[in-house]
Amino acid sequence: MDATPHWLSPEEKAAWDNFIRLQEKLIGRLSRYLQADSGLSASDYIVLVSLTERGGGRMRFLELAKLLEWEKSRTSHQVTRMTKRGLVAKEDCPDDGRGAFVVATPAGYKAIEEAAPQHVEHVRRLFIDALTPHQLSTLGRLSGRVLKHMEKQPD
Fold first, then answer.
1. Which of 96, 90, 95, 80 has its CA nearest to residue 58?
2. What pTM did the predictor assign?
3. CATH 1.10.10.10 is the classification of domain 35-152
4. What angle do the packed helices 42-49 and 106-126 form, to 10 degrees?
5. What is the b/e burial string over 133-149, where b = at least 16 CB atoms within 10 angstroms of the residue's CB?
6. Mean pLDDT, to the nearest integer, of 118-133?
7. Which superkingdom (predicted)?
8. Greatest pairwise CA separation for the chain in angstroms
9. pLDDT of 97
């Protein structure tokens, strides 16, 4: 590997800095609104969305961790906190004695159903409404391109 870093050009640095600042500010603000509106943390919300939209209400623990790009310990702590609050439950996997399922409870479904409309309004107000339809389409394509590129890179 080359010893000299390939530093970012001023334009690259400006693009990267703006992207990071946008992400931090948007996620921070959405997280605060979510907590104030529903009592759910951003982590609670993403777990419940993952389970209810992608997992049919249940998902293998390791599949959930992989989908969220979280380490097992972070996923375990989050699921434990949510279990204590009655939002999810853990179930043993009958096919694999070491595996477990994370399951959205009726309280978890109710929480996400109540939180989602307000959350979407905040997303629309802070993000969607700032862009024209063409800009939004371009951003979607660019984001997809970066995601595909990342999938090809070693983890």
1. 90
2. 0.88
3. yes
4. 110
5. eeeeeeeeeeeeeeeee
6. 98
7. Bacteria
8. 56
9. 67
Q: 26 pLDDT exceeds 80?
A: yes
Q: Would you give the distance in Å from CA 124 to the centre of its chain?
A: 17
β-bridge pairing 96-104 and 88-93: antiparallel
Question: 């049919």: which residue's tokens?
Answer: 56
Residue matched to tokens 């906190």: 81
Q: What percent of the chain has pLDDT over 90?
A: 88
For residue 144, what are the CA distances in angstroms to 17, 132, 138, 141? Answer: 20, 18, 10, 5
71-92 in b/e burial notation, b at 16+ Cβ within 10 A? eeeebeebbeebbeeebbbeee
Whole-angstrom distance, CA of residue 92 vs CA of residue 90: 7
Q: What is the pLDDT of residues 39-65, one digit of tens each?
A: 999 999 999 999 999 868 999 999 999
Q: Where are the domains of the chain?
A: 35-152
pLDDT at 94: 78
> Token digits for 56?
């049919």
107 with 86: CB under 8 angstroms? yes
Within 10 A of 114 (CB to CB), how many other CB atoms are there?
14
